[in-house]
Amino acid sequence: MTGRGELHPETLAAQGLGRVTEKHREIVSPIHVATTYERAADGSFPGGRIYSRADNPTYDTPEALIAALEHARAALLFSSGQAAAGAVFQALAPGDAALAPRNMYWAFRKWLLEFAAPRGLRLELYENASLDDLAKKARSLKPRVIWVETPANPTWDVTDIAAAAALAREAGGVLAVDNTVGTPMLTRPIDLGAAIVMHSATKYLNGHSDVVAGALATAADDEAWQRIRYVRGAGGAVLGPFEAWLLLRGMRTLHVRVAAACANAMAIAQRLEGHERLSHVLYPGLASHPGHAVAVRQMHGGFGGMLSLRFREGEQAAKDFTARLRVFKRATSLGSVESLAEHRASVEGPGTTCPTDLVRLSVGIEHADDLIGDLLQALG
Ligand SMILES: *Cc1c(COP(=O)(O)O)cnc(C)c1O
Question: Does CATH number 1.10.150.240 belong to domain 254-379?
Fold first, then answer.
């Protein structure tokens, strides 16, 4: 990171690290499409690359940018957020233990419970917002990994990252944080003691609903990280070069998009809190949210663009509300420039722990008045 240490994250993002390639002095990094690289006559690889399932030069700048933003030693891109998160657990040994929160991105909880656990992961779930529960389970299970998602889907429970990192260390393991919703613009888990940070880069990092990608960043270039690198290269969950290039392009506006989404989400949360049809407006930026005090401590510059509404009249009222939206699009996913709304329980399907009266909003960067007007007309 020599020479960039004094630059702000906004500058690093906007300039895509400011790297200019030697020959043509291009301001935008090129896309490298080659799958294979020539050997010298003596059998060596003078270009430093062998085959693109292991690595691709198009990854270099986006990986270095993610590492710089996360205050990490290194980062790796993956073909999706699920592949990135899965790699952390695939790098463990059979019989190793892990703790994950009860509320978290549903598809990954499902993978842990239905795929990883039957294949030898000793998994227990803890209550997101209860450090006591986490401490008790960490002390008895001695997990290799404590997984934290904060703010966590779909109620935006906040977990104290520094306290969870201390518990992981005490138990002889490490803390891994899904920072998809927080983004490195608001939360830097490694500064708070995490060993690994994971992103669904499909969401805020790319930010335009046109790339599926994942990333991991690490505090240390250690043996565990080398195992994760092996999982990517051997498992083959690699990102295409065009997607890696688009991701870098998306990240150049990360700070602007995140700031706009935070401001819009706060305006919406404040306007809708106390609405007669809503039992809860769940947003960590509201003093009424149970995680607000911890969020104030570990999030800087905003509380994110995600919030959820719970309807007093129950499931049908929540579904009818989404049917009446005109500006918000009815779609799953989050973290993009356009605002999305979904009846979350029906997306998660059988086994969901999501309240059935809950609508999840991913707030984009449109004009706040258009978004608030749409929500109010749909509330009737
Ligand atoms: C979307 C998401 C994931 C999974 O990422 P994909 O890129 O869809 O595979 C994991 N965690 C969170 C918080 C997410 O929003």
Answer: no
Average pLDDT of the chain to the nearest whole number: 96
Q: Is the pTM of this model over 0.70?
A: yes
Whole-number Å distance between alpha carbons of 207 and 251 = 8
Check pLDDT > 80 for residue 22: no
Pairing of strands 145-149, 174-178: parallel
Which of 77, 78, 180, 181 is the pocket-test mutation for ligand 1 (most atoms within 8 Å of CB)? 180
Looking from the CA of residue 201, the nearest atom of ligand 1 is 7
Q: Does the beta carbon of 80 sit less than 6 angstroms from any atom of ligand 1? A: yes
254-379 and 9-251 share a CATH fold: no
Task: Verify whether ligand 1 is closer than 6 Å to residue 180 (CB atom).
Answer: yes
Residue-range domain boundaries for the chain: 9-251, 254-379
Active site residue 53: yes
Q: What architecture does CATH give domain 9-251?
A: 3-Layer(aba) Sandwich (3.40)
Ligand 1 pocket check for 199: Cβ under 6 Å = no
User: Sorting pLDDT into bands at 50, 70 and 90, what band is 5?
Assistant: low
pLDDT of 2: 39
pLDDT of 342 > 70? The answer is: yes
Q: Quick check: is 252 catalytic? A: no
Terminus-to-terminus CA distance in the chain, angstroms? 53
